[in-house]
Amino acid sequence: MKARAPDAARRTPPGRNLLAGVLLGLGTVAFIDEVVFHQLLHWHHFYDRSTSGIGLVSDGLFHAFSWFATVASLLMVATLRRERAFSIAAFAAGWLTGAGFFQLYDGLVQHKLLNLHQIRYGVDLTPYDLTWNALAAVLLLAGIAWWALLWLHYRTEHQTR
């Protein structure tokens, strides 16, 4: 027997679920970046074009961003669940989209365009950049594809009624 979403989840456009997922995707990848690359490996700070103290302050602001995005997402999920309108599929599509978007934005805009920091210093960046941006593109495209399928399914289901 196929499990069905609660009636409210089937009637609710996937927008709020997607947004909650996007926020958690942004928060998750930003948190992993902060903990792994900034704190554990010490490869870079969010802003490396100044003193170490400024770098640490920029890391703190970056960490606050990831935390606020995560909390906002979880508050949205709580509201959606209370309304019986939570859709794990739409949420997951949003998570992939948010995670991929953040990582691609970080790799292209922050690393290359604005030159705020690089993934690592003193090494050939090519394999790091290719891996970072390829993974980001896969996450982003998977999220967008899933998102599009959900919207098509929602529209098809509601046009036939």
TrEMBL record:
The keyword Oxidoreductase does not apply. The chain crosses the membrane at residues 21-41, 61-78, 85-105, 130-152. Keywords: Membrane, Transmembrane, Transmembrane helix. The keyword Transmembrane applies. It comes from Saccharopolyspora terrae. This is DUF2243 domain-containing protein. It holds the Pfam family DUF2243. It comes from the Bacteria.
